[in-house]
Amino acid sequence: MIHHGLPGAHPGTTLTHKHMTSNPDALLLNLAEAQRNLKAWEAIVKDLKDQLTVLVDNGTITLENSKLIAHNTQFIQASRQTWTYPQSIQDLESALKQQQQISQLNGTATAKVSTYWTLKPSTT
Predict the structure, then answer these.
(1) Rounded CA separation 57/79 (Å)
(2) Fewer CB in 10 Å around end: N or C, the chain?
(3) What is the C-alpha end-to-end distance of the chain, expressed in Å?
(4) What is the model's pTM?
């Protein structure tokens, strides 16, 4: 189980724009810290969802129509169907991917560029 004692993790905590700044160095520092906190919170949410699944599975918590409402929040249990295809379909997919790559190389495909940010811990 993950320890849930993150700094500033108090019940009822609300996100604000208090970290907004025009100072570039402070902006980078705040963004790096927020990203680390986000990763930690994602791990906590995953752990808590796993615990919720166990409680539902063992009957401690019951759902009505795959839903529970508590603390002004709807907790909805959903499922997703995945498919495994026969080799003949996998071969067709592979051939299509090859045709897409050829189209990219010969210029008949149209590229769209979207800008986004990725934050990763620095190794230096």
Answers:
(1) 14
(2) C
(3) 30
(4) 0.60
Contact assessment for residue 84 and residue 92, using Cβ atoms and an 8 Å cutoff: no
| pLDDT score at 1 | 42
**Residue 100 lies inside a defined structural domain of this protein:** no
The answer to whether the beta carbons of residues 59 and 14 sit under 8 Å apart is no
Structure tokens at 35: 């990203």
Tokens 């963004």 correspond to what residue?
31
Q: Is residue 98 part of a domain?
A: no
> Cα 98–102–107 angle (5° rounding)?
150
Question: What pLDDT is recorded for position 59?
Answer: 94
* Domain enclosing residue 61, as ranges: 22-77
Helices (H) and strands (E) in the chain, counts: 2, 2
Residue spans of the chain under pLDDT 70 = 1-19, 124
Q: Which of 9, 69, 1 is nearest to 38 (CA)?
A: 9
Amino acid, res. 77: Q
Q: What is the model's pLDDT at position 9?
A: 53
In a domain, 56, yes or no: yes
